[in-house]
Amino acid sequence: MKITFLTLLAATTVYAGGFTSTCTNLYLISTAVGGVCKRINGSTNNSSVDANGHIGNSNGKLVRFSGGYKSSCRNCHISTGTSGKQFILSCECNSSNGWKATSIDINWFLSNQNGVLAWDK
Ligand SMILES: *[C@@H]1O[C@H](CO)[C@@H](O)[C@H](O)[C@H]1NC(C)=O
Ligand SMILES: *[C@@H]1O[C@H](CO)[C@@H](O)[C@H](O)[C@H]1NC(C)=O
Ligand SMILES: *[C@@H]1O[C@H](CO)[C@@H](O)[C@H](O)[C@H]1NC(C)=O
Ligand SMILES: *[C@@H]1O[C@H](CO)[C@@H](O)[C@H](O)[C@H]1NC(C)=O
User: Fold this and answer.
1) How far are the Cα atoms of 35, 87, 91, 119 from residue 17, in angstroms, in the given order?
2) 30 three-class SS
3) pTM of the complete model
4) pLDDT band at 82, cuts 50/70/90?
5) Which among 2, 47, 85, 99 has most CB atoms closer than 10 A?
6) Which CATH number covers residue 45?
7) Which among 27, 38, 49 is the best mutation to test ligand 2's pocket, defined by most ligand atoms within 8 Å of the CB?
8) Separation of CA 115 and ligand 1 centre (Å)
9) For residue 58, is it within any domain?
10) Which Pfam families match (predicted)?
11) Where are the alpha helices (DSSP H) in 12-65?
């Protein structure tokens, strides 16, 4: 019974972001978001994912479930916010009224899956 239950639990693990609590040395290089991420066994992996395929520009606002922000945004940078646990991507993005300052906290969309960063569904 116990084994069956644990197997079920492992098979249904849901990742819900929060990668900055287990990754350090966070970076944004071009559109690659990454960090040095801890594995369950204690070792680390320098892991990154592409943000341009997942973040878009909706009339001057950075948005999730989209893509291609790079082509219409400029001066992008990251910060870890006041808590030090956020991963805030800030840019100036083009809109129908010109360039707008906009930011999005992508910490909650990205999970550390045993040392490999992955976007949540
Ligand atoms: C931890 O796991 C990784 C990936 O499977 C492996 O490459 C590494 O050698 C392991 N490290 C330790 C300390 O067990
Ligand atoms: C992780 O990889 C990135 C991209 O290759 C590199 O710029 C960065 O220095 C690496 N970080 C560490 C701590 O090795
Ligand atoms: C480290 O992370 C990268 C993804 O950024 C992944 O492709 C690679 O397999 C990982 N390396 C190990 C040994 O887990
Ligand atoms: C900004 O967006 C406007 C409206 O969509 C467009 O006409 C203009 O060409 C864009 N400018 C740049 C620099 O992308």
Assistant:
1) 14, 11, 21, 8
2) coil
3) 0.85
4) confident
5) 47
6) 2.30.60.10
7) 27
8) 10
9) yes
10) CVNH
11) none
Q: Which helix (H) or strand (E) holds 9?
A: helix 2-11
Distance between CA atoms of residues 106 and 121, nearest Å:
13
Start-to-end CA span in the chain (Å): 31
The domain of 7 spans: 2-111
Q: Residue 20 has which token pair?
A: 């900055």
Q: Is 94 in the pocket of ligand 4 (CB under 6 A)?
A: yes
Residue 8 has pLDDT above 80, yes or no: no
- Residue 41 included in any domain: yes
* Total of domains in the chain: 1
Task: Say if residues 28 and 89 touch (Cβ distance below 8 Å).
Answer: yes
Is position 106 within any domain? yes
Tracing tokens 């239950």 back to the chain, one arrives at 5
